[in-house]
Structures are given as structure tokens and as C-alpha cells.
């Protein structure tokens, strides 16, 4: 048992990441002490049990006590290894050279998405991005309890591997980063109340205002991603949530995910509210035309129609409401929407015609918005776009050791 316990403190040695693929010193600084202290504590318990009981080993009661004490350690060791295994799985992916280099770039993208100018966000540990099964992205937030009972030391963002073959849709990382940041800001509940109030002002009866409060836990991160990447977020939502009618229009009174039908309409409305008329108006018409609501069950159709009518009011709340956790500032005060305006991004995307895409002086998230514009307005071979974005991610990854 002591031999297995000691292994907990050897994660870095076992993964043995080359310098070019290694995580940052700060990330190891929160992982290694946690594993070392757990290993030391469990070892001490085993040694205390041994020293207490072994002199009486011939007595049945002593043997039973020893078995009981070691059994409890065994269970705690299993929980400690669940934490160890999680990070072993995440870090082992970094040993695959191309995959590791791209994931390092995703780390930088996620970190940029979380770090806004607010004291509550200054101490978030740099996140790690990894690939796993599933349809979409997910996050294990910093401070969420792990199986060993201790808080997760850094945000872990999971993406499907396929997302690395459609890098223009990496806005899903920005969405997951929004979950972490909004939680840290204490904005989850206030945002829900603001959306419900905005909906109530337009529709005082029915369940839809309460649904918007429920949905706010996903709408908020969607809006966070929009404020970081602009039209690229709307384009990604339009692509990622183009699902069959029953899936796109499904409403559950307990599911915090809005129906994709409404989710896309919100994104298009945010573009219009921020920048007036544009290609998103065409996207909206195509979107509505793609889903024949008359084929949806009557009760669900009625709620969808009401929810759609409330989209402008909900959008207005997201842009204009002032929040106590933000010192009575708007949520948009944390972002620079001008930097990702189509009028600023379009000429940068057009620079690809010269053979070199000029991304200087743009944040990583704003750079992602350029690629969204590039795909929407400057169609190119998928392989060429993937090469461009792979090189971009790898350059980002090379800067990860400068993360705060």
C-alpha cells in the first residue's frame, strides 16, 4: 500500500513531458503540492496504523483493527487516484506532438477568454484544454469538488477531438471559459434575475420568463463568447446547433440549455444590436426557414413563439443591465466590442489575399473572430484553412509559458 501511495507524488515524472509540450510552471505549482500532500497524509496514516497495531499482531482484535484502518486508507487512496487519473489522462495527450501543440494553443485561447479586467478574475489558475468523447464541449470549473473531496485546482475544458478539425468553431472554448468567469464574478444568479425581469416586462404571464432565468446559465456563457469573438460566435452557433427539428426545438422545464432554435436567434440579435444590419440577418431568415414550427407539438410551439418574441428584450438586458457584482457596470464593460466589429475584422481577414494573414495587435480571441470572418466571407479549401489555423494555434501555444 505504501508503494502505491508513493506513486501519487510521481505524476510529473511519469508523464515526463518534453519542455516544448509541458504545461506551465504555475500549473505544476498547484498540481504537485496537492498530490505530494495527499501522498504524505495517506502514508502517515498507514505508518501510524502499523506502529500502533503490529506489536499486537498476534491478537485477533488487533488484526481486525489493522484491517479496518487499512481498508479506510484503501478507499481514500482510490479517491486520490481518481484525481491523479484525471490529470494523467489530460496531460498524457500533450505527449502527442501535433495534438499537444494545438491543445497548448487552446490553453492560451481559454486563458484569454477568462482573464478580464476585474479583481475577481485575477486569481483564476490558467486552464487546461483536452479532448474527450461527446457531442460538445464541457468544463470542470476550478474549485469544483473532485472525488478525493478537495477542490479542482484549475479549470479543465473538454472539447471533442473533431473540434480541432473545425477550429473556426473553437468559440465553444470561449463559452466554457464564460462558465468559469461568470461563476467567479458572482454573476450567475444576478444574470438569471435580469433576464427573467426583462422577459416579465414584456410577458407577465406564462412560464417563459422563468425559462429564461433557467436558460441564463447557458445564455450568459454564449454572450460571453460573443463579446470575445463577435460574429464568429453567431456563425459557430448556426453551424453547431443545426440539428434535427425535435432536437432543435426541444424544451424541458429543468434543462438549463435553451432550445438551439432560440439560442441561434439570440446570437443573431446580438450581432444586430451591436453592429446594425449584416449577414446575420440573412442567417436569421435561413434559420427560421429551416425549422417548420407548425410541425412542433402545440404546447412547445406556443412557448417557442413566446420565447422568440422575447429575444430583443433579453438581448437588451444582456447589453444594458447594470450588475452589483460589476460595481453597477454593464457586462459589456469587461470587453472591447469595437475591436471585434466587422468593420475592423473584415480588412484583417482580407489580408489573407496577400498570402500572409496579419493578426498583429489582436488578442487571441479577437484572432479567432478573424478566422470566423475569413470562413464566412473568403471561402477557401478546408485543408488550407485548417493549415492556417493549425499554424496559428501552434504559435499561440508557444506563448503559453507567459500566461499569468
Map the helices and strands.
Elements: H1 2-7, H2 11-15, H3 25-53, H4 60-92, H5 97-114, E1 128-131, E2 138-140, E3 156-159, H6 171-185, H7 188-202, H8 208-229, H9 231-240, H10 245-248, H11 260-275, H12 279-290, H13 298-309, H14 311-320, E4 322-323, E5 329-330, H15 342-350, H16 364-377, H17 382-397
Parallel strand pairs: 1-3
Antiparallel strand pairs: 2-3, 4-5
What is shown here, in short?
The protein is mostly helical.
Structure description:
The chain is mainly alpha-helical and 404 residues long. It has a domain at 2-94. It is 61% helix and 4% strand. The chain has 17 helices and five strands. The protein has helices at 2-7, 11-15, 25-53, 60-92, 97-114, 171-185, 188-202, 208-229, 231-240, 245-248, 260-275, 279-290, 298-309, 311-320, 342-350, 364-377, 382-397, and strands spanning 128-131, 138-140, 156-159, 322-323, 329-330. The strands form two sheets. A three-stranded mixed beta sheet has the order 1-3-2. The protein has a two-stranded antiparallel sheet with strand order 4-5. β4 (322-323) and β5 (329-330) form a beta hairpin. α3 runs antiparallel to α4 (60-92) and α11 (260-275) packs across α14. The longest helix has 33 residues, at 60-92. The protein starts with a helix and ends in a 7-residue tail after the last helix. 40% of the residues are buried.
